[in-house]
UniProtKB/TrEMBL annotation:
Entry-linked SMART domains: HTH_DEOR
Domain HTH deoR-type: 57-112
Listed name of the protein: Substrate-binding domain-containing protein
InterPro entries reported for this sequence: DeoR_HTH (IPR001034), LacI/GalR-like_sensor (IPR046335), Peripla_BP_I (IPR028082), Tscrpt_reg_HTH_DeoR_CS (IPR018356), WH-like_DNA-bd_sf (IPR036388), WH_DNA-bd_sf (IPR036390)
Cleaved signal peptide residues: none
Biased composition (Gly residues): 221-231
């Protein structure tokens, strides 16, 4: 992330309101779910696998209901393995069947309303299971309750109403059209796949100046899904539920509002609901917010800018990997597992942005260019690496020029640190500085004016973030990360992951280039007195 990205002290960031509330009859999200077992009438695993390969979507969903009828309880992961589809596909099937009144979601799996397992789970009122129709017997249409009030239910499980199957037909209420939940076209949008490349430097991934539109998000059947005369798979559009995406960012006031705006606009365009939480740059707080979204709000996927360093950050990354819903990291990158496989992410290319600032200053004639970053910014290492790479590439000296990490401008020690920076600039003949971030750069310019150091005459200044840089006097030249584009691309990548039936879909990492905005704080260096 960028300078924007260092924590601002004060009271914890407020949580955005979450309009979704649990149904009164929803299962306790923390309740354990009994392990399912293969029923006496079930095919052996190998036989099930062979059958699942050729199943059409409606046939697959019929099999889900049939397995529930036989066993009384199944788990999402077990269904995915037996039907030879991805966990995401099973969740979509479960959501559709739930919207048609055939199933009810619980955490971790699916149970029959009136089964013995369901009767033992807390928060469940046992319901009588309707009899299974005899062959040829007509059944009334299944009721299709609105999901508008239950969109915040637990995430990974379902319970069935006990409605049986008419032999030879799909589940009641599911038209046997053979139409799946995913539009026929393949995933569109973010073309930034790097496959399983594990290059540590994010700048090695493909950069993208523009991102195409996201596909309709099918996390749950609803307004963002496949259109048709009868709504999604026969569910009326006005009664279908929106897909729900959780988003957790470390600040709701600096840098992140534009990222949020981009994600919100992309979600609205595809008919999804975005549930926002603000954290405080602390892994424990982020874990708490994420757990609530997954276990209570029943989100279909997560957009998150987590803490990734330190013991707690590493544990949080492992938790995200096993959260049970797709995750896209925003302005963060992380690897997991013994092979250090990358998690899906969308980031600004801060290394490229910092190098672009150095090249701009070198073009103006500066030969001694320093860099200043703050101690707690996750973006600082990337900015420093870009500065160093560009200086080496251009043959600019590194010895003697400021290469400093300081406290930020809110710290009581900032005035002393700032004078130390300027003292080094004067002593070393440094004529240009790259400063991360805007508040520190503005404060530095003010102190230069107090000390009689002219900006840009004696010292050119380029800031990194461009949140408030143009409000300085003089307006600051700035590197502007593509914040809104990051939010849009992150949502679209998550939407594609949810829409893709392929369980072997490769990991995607999207890297988007910042822009350099040239203003009045950078100019050619003044001639030095002889």
């Amino acid at each position: 992330m960028t300078a924007h990205d260092h924590p601002r002290p004060g009271a914890p960031a407020p949580e955005a309101p979450d309009p979704g509330a649990l149904d009164p009859g929803a299962l306790d999200p923390g309740a354990p779910l009994a392990r399912s077992s293969r029923g006496p009438d079930d095919p052996a695993p190998g036989e099930r696998h062979a059958q699942a390969v050729e199943l059409l979507p409606d046939e697959r969903r019929a099999q889900v209901v049939e397995l529930l009828r036989r066993r009384g309880v199944v788990r999402v992961n077990e269904l995915a393995a037996e039907l030879d589809v991805s966990v995401i596909t099973v969740r979509r099937d479960i959501a559709l069947l739930s919207s048609q009144g055939l199933l009810r979601r619980v955490r971790g799996g699916a149970v029959l309303h009136g089964g013995a397992v369901a009767d033992t789970l807390p928060g469940v009122t046992p319901q009588r299971t309707p009899p299974v129709p005899e062959p040829g017997q007509e059944t009334g249409p299944a009721s299709v309750p609105s999901l508008a009030g239950s969109g915040a239910g637990p995430a990974d499980a379902v319970s069935a109403t006990g409605t049986g199957l008419v032999p030879g037909a799909g589940p009641v209420g599911v038209p046997a059209t053979g139409t799946g939940l995913v539009p026929g076209a393949g995933p569109v949008g973010v073309p930034a796949a790097t496959g399983h490349s594990r290059t540590a430097d994010a700048s090695a991934a493909t950069r993208h100046p523009g991102i195409a539109a996201a596909p309709p998000l099918p996390g749950r059947p609803g307004t963002g899904g496949q259109p048709g005369a009868g709504g999604w798979a026969g569910v009326p559009d006005q009664e279908a539920a929106q897909a729900t995406i959780g988003m957790v960012v470390p600040s709701l006031d600096y840098y992140w509002p534009d990222v949020i705006r981009g994600a919100r606009e992309a979600a609205a365009a595809s008919g999804a609901r975005l549930v926002l939480r603000g954290a405080t740059y602390q892994a424990a707080d982020e874990r708490r917010q994420l757990s609530r979204l997954v276990e209570t709000a029943g989100v279909d996927g997560l957009l998150v800018a987590p803490t990734t360093t330190g013991d707690e950050g590493e544990e949080l990354v492992r938790w995200l990997q096993g959260a049970g819903v797709p995750v896209v990291l925003v302005e963060r990158a992380a690897t997991v597992g013994p092979h250090q496989e990358a998690m899906e992410s969308v980031v600004s290319d801060h290394v490229f942005g910092a190098a672009m600032a150095v090249r701009h200053l070198a073009t103006l004639g500066h030969r001694r260019v320093g860099v200043i970053t703050t101690t707690q910014s996750p973006t600082a290492p990337h900015v420093r690496r870009g500065w160093r790479q560009a200086c080496v590439e251009l043959g600019l000296p590194l010895d003697g020029v400021p290469d400093l990490t300081t406290v930020d401008q809110r710290d009581p020690g900032w005035p002393e640190a700032l004078d130390g920076v300027l003292d080094v600039c004067v002593a070393s003949g440094t004529t240009a500085l790259l400063v991360h971030s805007d508040p520190e750069a503005i404060s530095l310019v003010e102190r230069c004016q107090e000390r009689g150091i002219r900006v840009p005459g004696d010292l050119s200044v380029v800031t990194y973030d461009d949140e408030v840089a143009e409000l300085c006097d003089p307006p600051l030249t700035a590197v502007r990360p593509p914040k809104a584009a990051i939010g849009r691309a992150a949502y679209r990548l998550l939407a594609e992951r949810l829409a893709d039936e392929d369980p072997q879909r490769p990991t995607h990492r999207v890297v988007i280039e910042p822009r350099l905005i040239v203003r009045a704080s950078s100019a050619p260096p003044s001639p030095r007195p002889a």
